[in-house]
Amino acid sequence: MIYAVSSNSNLTAHLDVNSSSRVINQSSGAVDLRSLQQQLNEESLIRLSLVNQLYTLSSDMLTVKQRMMAIAVEGRQFEDKLKAMKKKFIALKNENRRMRDTQEQISVKVSNATDAGTSHASSGSQNEDSVVAFHAFTSKKLNFKTDTTVNVVYDKTSLNTHDVYNTKNGFFTAPSGGLYVFSWTSLVAEMSKFNAELLVNGERKGLAKCDHELGQQGFESCSNTVPVILKTGDLVNIRTVDSLSLLGIQWSSFKGWKVQ
């Protein structure tokens, strides 16, 4: 009997040990499951944070792109405004030149009218069919600015019938209508140039280029001749286009005569 009881006790103890092991294993498995679940939750949070950051970055990139497009549009608008201002400036510059030429022409006509009145008072009326001719020249060297156009004044004359050429302002005034011929000769030194135009009432009728900026040592002489039909009172003069200097002492001259 005693032996039987002892056997039962060992069996019971063995069962108790196995049951405890299963409890421990179950507890360990539950802990591992919770740990894995926690890791999954943390990874989900990290993944969600990354998605939010990507969304924010995409939104920022879209904002930057929209801003760059707006800046590009503003730049084009600024360029358009700048071009419009440049065109307006050129138009104002041309208008200012036209007004200056008109004022000079009016001054010349007033001066000529005054001179004509004095001439008529002293010597009577002139015959419109008489010879009309002039030959004017510069008595000294003239200097110019390349970016400024000016009327060239030939201050001396060797021939000037009826005072048709004004040595004070450089304008010829047609005493009668008809066919006229005008010619101008220019002399420039090395490293200089004198490019000029013939104007009739402020309108270009001829050009002459005399450029010796890149030439050899010495001088450059140039000329041009232009026939024009004028009406009584028309004004003719020489104006610089792109000039630095013009030599004088009769080397540079402006002349004209009526053909018929």
Structural notes for this entry:
This protein has 260 residues and is an alpha+beta fold. 47% of the residues lie in helices and 26% in strands. It is built from 1 helix and 11 strands; from the N terminus they run αβββββββββββ. The strands form 3 sheets. A 5-stranded antiparallel β-sheet has the order 3-1-11-5-8, with no helix packed on it. Strands 4-9-6-7 form a 4-stranded antiparallel β-sheet, covered by helices on one side. Strands 2-10 form a two-stranded antiparallel ribbon. Strand 6 (194-200) and strand 7 (203-208) form a beta hairpin. The longest helix is centred in the first third of the chain and has 122 residues, at 2-123. The radius of gyration is 50 Å and the shape is rod-shaped. Mean pLDDT is 81; it is low at 1-7 and 120-126.
Q: Topology of this protein?
A:
Layout: H1 2-123, E1 133-137, E2 142-143, E3 156-160, E4 172-173, E5 178-189, E6 194-200, E7 203-208, E8 219-230, E9 235-243, E10 245-246, E11 253-258
Antiparallel strand pairs: 1-3, 1-11, 2-10, 4-9, 5-8, 5-11, 6-7, 6-9
InterPro entries: C1q_dom, Tumour_necrosis_fac-like_dom
In percent, how helical is the residue content? Answer: 40-55%
CATH class of the largest domain: Mainly Beta
Biggest beta-sheet profile: 5 strands, antiparallel
Count of spatially separate domains: 2
Taken in chain order, the helices and strands follow as HEEEEEEEEEEE
CATH fold-level topology of the largest domain: Jelly Rolls
Mean pLDDT equals 81
Q: Tell me the strand order in the biggest sheet.
A: 3-1-11-5-8
Return Rg in Å: 50 Å
Low-confidence stretches: 1-7, 120-126
Structural class: alpha+beta
The coarse silhouette is: rod-shaped
InterPro entries: C1q_dom, Tumour_necrosis_fac-like_dom
